[in-house]
Amino acid sequence: MTDADADPGMNGMNDKDGADGADITVDIAVVGAGAAGLSLAHRLAGTPGPHGAAPSVALVEAPGEPGSGTRTPPRTWCFWEAGEGPYEQAVRASWDRLRVRCPDGRTAEARLGPLRYKMIRSPDFAELVERRLARLPRLHRPAATVDRVLDHPAGGAVVHGTDASGSPVRVRARWAFDSRPPRRLPAARSTLLQHFRGWFVRCAADSFDPSAVELMDFRTPQPAHGLSFGYVLPLGRREALVEYTEFSAAPLRREEYERALRHYTAEVLGLGGMTVLDTEQGVIPMTDAVFPRRAGRCVFRIGTAGGATRPATGYTFAAVQRQSDAVADAWRRGRVPVPPPAHAARHRAMDAVVLRALAAGRLSGARFFGELFLRNPADRLLRFLDGRSRWWEEVAIGLSTPVPPMLRSAVELPVLRRRDAVLPRP
Fold it and tell me: Which SUPFAM superfamilies does this UniProt record tie to the protein (predicted)?
């Protein structure tokens, strides 16, 4: 451990510190109660340190209804996992098969072996974690709209915010972890948005295969730039989450998503007697930007803000769990708990090439992803998408892609200028 990484301690940190107006003093502050914040607080609050004691943790979340967890609209998180995981009680559905349908009608279908593709809804996840957190005596739950998370001159970090009445709230901590999504993305050579709208539907007759996910159905009209696909998560023979997704430079208007969903459900899937029970919508950045995981001597970023989103796919939940486990392990060993890179450097490099080829219009995205699944074993691709593939598997995957556009994109990346990008407002 270098001097720069030495534990700064919390010299002069006391509850109700008059000089700094601190309201709470803890070992660790976690800002935000979405997937990343809840996961980290849950892992840390029950992990003993090198001297045997679990840390005191402040989970700082936006003002709202007590126990509501995330303050954003409900959303769906999916990931691959073998066996039962730590959040199994929150899993809404899981599947052991997946399908990818090409624009020309060819279908790649595969069983997942020991893996299952699992779906968690954010309210179920929050409820499960909230129940577990409620049993922990050293957890604090200040409600505040956070505007700054900074190193403190006396050591440690301080979280500044205001409560629902506008009064200041300050949390002093040895370490602070900020999970708030970035408003402005770091500079990147290529940036696309994965944007989508989904319907939770119920049909009058059996319409879905509850054992299989339609991971990518490219029988949708393809945009001039980027790609589009349907995504179907069956919740039974008559119920499913059906989404229309695009990878492109900007989101659509709501009426455009609705028109695309009507076309997909009626003309492609042939669903009749269908009722829309609920909706969800979102935007995920797909970028080769470098997300700094350290914002100060004692301040770290986690989740999407800390680079947990996989650049070429948008998957985030599994990477969040890996980061949380690594931070908790560092605390247990008495080390500086810097969140590790969520994805290996070679995977980020390969994703950068794919993003560049897609953004430059050199690839038919629908054909590219369809051929990947047709020409590679599903378990190999899933290991790659989850960041667990070996180099020789990645070589085989690379050889199944269109070489000229990928090679041209790889050659030009080092000389491309990185540019700022702003995320659209929800």
Answer: FAD/NAD(P)-binding domain
Q: Residue 42: which domain range?
A: 3-72+123-182+291-333
Give domain status of residue 420, yes or no: no
The DSSP symbol for 314 reads -
pLDDT tens by residue, 163-206: 988 999 999 999 999 999 887 889 999 999 999 999 999 999 99
HSE-CB of 186 using CA atoms within 13 angstroms: 12
Say what the pLDDT of residue 135 is.
86
**Is the confidence at residue 228, as pLDDT, over 60?**
yes
Residue 144, SS3? coil
Compute the distance between CA of residue 7 and CA of residue 5 in angstroms, rounded to an integer.
6
Q: Decide if 154 is inside a domain.
A: yes
Task: Identify whether residues 49 and 109 lie together within a single domain.
Answer: no
Same domain as 352, residue 399: yes
Structurally, the chain folds into a number of domains equal to: 3
Pairing of β 168-178 and β 212-217: unpaired
The pLDDT value recorded for residue 9 is 55
Please state, as a whole number, how many other Cβ atoms lie within 10 Å of the Cβ of residue 87.
21
- In this predicted model, what pLDDT tens digit does every residue of 39-78 receive, in sequence order? 999 999 888 888 888 899 999 999 874 444 445 688 999 9
- Considering the domain architecture, whether residues 176 and 319 belong to the same structural domain is answered as yes
Residue 174 contacts residue 156 (beta carbons within 8 Å): yes
Q: State whether residue 189 is helix, strand or coil.
A: coil
- SS3 state at 256: helix
Are 214 and 270 found together in one domain?
Answer: yes
User: Under the phi-then-psi rule, with left for phi > 0, alpha for psi from -120 to 50, and beta for the rest, what region is 218?
Assistant: alpha
Domain co-membership, 195 together with 325: no
d(CA 352, CA 335): 32
Instruction: Name residue, tokens 């970090």.
Output: 157
User: Could you tell me if 38 and 123 are in contact, meaning their C-beta atoms sit under 8 angstroms apart?
Assistant: no
Model confidence at 425, in pLDDT bands (50, 70, 90)? Answer: low
Residues 178 and 201 in one domain: no
The predicted model scores a pTM of 0.89
